[in-house]
Amino acid sequence: MSRVLKTLLERQQPGDALVEAVLDASTALDSDYELATLLIKVAETHRLNDHLRAKYLDAAEHISSQYERDRVLAALVRHGGFD
What we know:
Blueprint: H1 2-9, H2 16-26, H3 32-45, H4 50-60, H5 66-78
Helix pairs in contact: 1-2, 1-3, 2-4, 3-5
């Protein structure tokens, strides 16, 4: 499933609605690594408005591994996921 979601993000300039759908679907991923990798991809490819940033952080809450959660939050800060 994570490959499908990543492929959607690789479309040229995904819109906010698509990114929101990916973030919503991401919480169904069972692997902390897969979820973290997907969220990092979101941070790298899309500037997040307040609504999407909240969705991103909600999805990050589903990561139980502190290491993976730290990677996700660092990606958000590093890539300036702020509009």
